[in-house]
Design a protein that fits this description.
This protein has 180 residues and is mainly beta. Helix content is 5%, strand content 51%. The longest helix has 9 residues.
Length: 180
């Protein structure tokens, strides 16, 4: 018989493992993430809006749920940012398609949660990298943190410095699905 349960007081941005039992028999387990708190975030709903948020050095953005990807090609980023995805009712994360290039004057942290980063069938090398030919003597990043993200379709890897010194305080991939 079908059943339902409501679980209250869960913490935002947290992974939970739920196990279903019938009497003492384990009947399956499911992993679920609670959604992040998105109050006060700048909501972006187009590729142009994402690129403008990067240019305007927006501190926190919410990428709107969409059935199609947001192509950004090779987008420059010069300041720390938090990128959150607005999942649709089926739990599908919004997709940012392309590369994010950290410019020589980049400072801060890079944080992404509930977003899919897509290399478009390996058309792009890395989701995050120093800008090629950017001329940085060094790029310092406090933290790079991907949480509950999908990273797929990149041809070369996850992070690249293009021969420029890159100092990273911490690098975290938390609950992510990463495929080629």
């Amino acid at each position: 018989a079908a059943g339902a349960a409501t679980i209250e007081s869960l913490t935002a941005s947290t992974r939970y493992d739920f196990t279903l039992y019938f009497k003492s028999a384990n009947r399956g387990q499911i992993e679920a993430w609670t959604r992040p708190v998105t109050d006060g975030l700048t909501r972006v709903a187009s590729s142009a809006a994402i690129l403008q948020a990067f240019k305007d050095k927006a501190a926190k953005i919410l990428v709107a749920a969409s059935d199609t990807a947001y192509p950004i090609s090779q987008a420059d980023l010069s300041s720390g940012i938090e990128i959150y995805g607005e999942e649709n009712t089926a739990g599908t994360k919004p997709t940012i398609q392309g590369e994010i290039h950290l410019t020589k004057d980049f400072s801060g942290n890079f944080y992404a949660e509930s977003v899919t980063f897509d290399g478009n069938g390996q058309d792009y090398g890395f989701p995050l990298q120093a800008k090629n030919g950017g001329g940085a003597s060094s790029i310092t990043i406090g933290e790079i943190h991907y949480k509950n993200c999908n990273i797929t379709g990149y041809s070369k890897g996850l992070l690249y410095e293009w021969g420029q010194p890159m100092v990273i305080g911490s690098l975290i991939y938390e609950g992510c699905y990463i495929t080629d």
